[in-house]
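Exercise: predict the fold of this chain.
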Amino acid sequence: MVLSIIVVSHNSSEFILSCLNSIRNCLNRTAYEIIIVDNHSRDGSPRLMRETFPDLCLIENVKNLGLATAVNQGFRKAKGKYLLILNPDVGLLPGSVEKAITFLEKNPDVGILLPKLLNPDGSLQFSCRSFFNFPYLLFRRTPLGKIFPNHRVIREHFMMNWDHADPREVDWGLGGCMFLRREAVRGGEVFDERFFLYMEDVDLCFRMKANGWKGIYYPEAAMVHAHVRESARGIFNRAKWEHLKSMIKFYRKYGGFSPRISGKDA
């Protein structure tokens, strides 16, 4: 088995069938498996998946265990040399997976490969980031960010001054779409389960770097990401609360936010 695709679903009926169809339509030369972990959806999406893809490996949790725990459940079932962690709102584009795997095969020091993500209108999504620092948090979590939306601090964090046309080593990228080398995953789990939602991807990339693995943004592999940001909805909701809790846990785990590590060409 070359590739194990792990998708965590929670009330994802709007996207999940499109995501699965994109996998089926784009992967015809790679030995792969799909493992869906459903976190107690109430929108009928598990039934839709069972009816449309009867051979699917579907794990149905009786309660929402969070993203990190669900990914680890999928990992324990996975047989592939490489893993693709995928959100239901991501659609594969033809050739992207093959290009990503070819790059990983040629670069054995790469533990994480981050594809280029595109918005549904085809525009670039700024999906790779620098590690958090205090100036960024000040701008992002206070009214300063709305007053100065294009401030240098924000642009540097989102790496907006780089054209994203070439492979590059980066600090971290969105966990909703990332390739992992199984060999680089330590301790029998992908994500730290202390993070229910958010910051698990930052933590993983930080740990990978600490263990000597590279995290590479690779634009030749491109995918479409609807990017449903629950934490951006409303003044305060559970997603915002979980984001805040995860940031506090990250701070406590490392005794402060990790220092910025400058990217370099791959």
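Check your answer against the key: Confidence is low (pLDDT under 50) at residues 259-266.
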